[in-house]
Amino acid sequence: MLACVLxxxxxxxxxxxxxxxxxxxxxxxxxxxxxxxxxxxSAGQLALPKSIVDHIEKGGILPLMSSxxxxxxxxGLDLEPAETAATAGESEIDxxxxxxxxxxxxxxxxxxxxxxxxxxxxxxxxRALHAAARFxxxxxxxxxxxxxxxxxxxxxxxxxxxxxxxxxxxxRRSEFKxxxxxxxxxxxxxxxxxxxxxxxGWTYYGLNRxxxxxAAWKKSLALRADPEVQAALDKAVRDKAEEENYRENESSHFxxxxxxxxxxxxxxxxxxxxxGHYQQIESELxxxxxxxxxxxxxxxxxxxxxxxxxxxxxxxxxxxxxxxVQGLTGVDSELSRVLRHELTHSFIQxxxxxxxxxxxxxxxxxxxxxxxxxxSAAVLVQVYDAGQAAPLGQLExxxxxxxxxxxxxxxxxxxxxxxxxxxxxxxxxVERILDRLATGTATExxxxxxxxxxYADLMQATAGYLKKNYGR
Length: 472
Ligand SMILES: [Zn+2]
Hints:
Helices cover 55% and strands 14% of the residues. It is of the alpha+beta class and 472 residues long.
């Protein structure tokens, strides 16, 4: 069986801070400092009170590639507000806006009351909201981060730091068009800021415009050396070199690229198949992805070379659907199944703004492709009864480093859990879980809210379901 690789890993070589409320923070250089946990994130250096931290998981994950939103989450961005406006009082504003592990909404309301855009008080309000947005983003609450960053821009509509922060939040939400709009505005006031072009590169990449992405990253590098930008540019150039002699084809929801030596008829059939799957998944998940979905068809060697995916990978979704089609002249049932699986990933990615854990992504994708637990039920039940099933919490992050056999267990459990939910509660519950993930709710909390189950309950119920439906 060929599994698909989903490259939506959180971060490169990052640690995970797990809070007592279940939320997880991806961070670098996590250190204990008295009653604080200090760490670095893409949004700058921050600290949390130790009292709200449950534990810290040391990382070591280095995804081969990742979606633009995930890549930018792992990137080191310096989004400090403009130096010109900085006074000694302003870091005081940051401290007053965020302290003791939470945002001081009273303080911010006080700054905002009776404030019109442009004045000195408005700049203070913008600064405080900026600090709040950054804090919310690091905590993983992208809804609040967005609302704070938008408010900050409304008070200081010409401050590049505010514009850049808002563009960054949109990018993290995989809302590329909005991100681009604010980057354009930031450029008017900060033409020589390398971070503007760094973000612009990721935004174009997310919009499947690798040429413009490469041009933006080159500008960023001309302004400042940056290994992350260099790596991103190298990858874009690698993609481009391979895709140079590719042909393009488009349908209403897809942009397809394929090797010039592939059958043109195959490309048309792939698009036709994808459009059919699109309509079905759209109605099952009750969601229409706002952005067009990029698809690349490869020869086998090009796939291995470009994607650098592990040997057991059959296809891949890193924001674009990448499928090897060596020797195929038409869409057979196997390819149709693979396309459906990968397309489901794109739906879930866009619906949850990249916040779905891997087990939900792979569980729903397998369910949608038509896979069921019949073959694996007996061994899963055996593993469960022996108390050897991995807790679902361990299947949230990237599976890239998993050896093949372990990965097959992970896929089988992911499917079994989703199959149990769909068969006993209905697809509507899956949809409601995805909706909660989209607003930043931690996965187990979303399960509690929708299913009234925690992870242990869900595993138990799934094992029971497998026994009942597939038992001898
Ligand atoms: Zn998959």
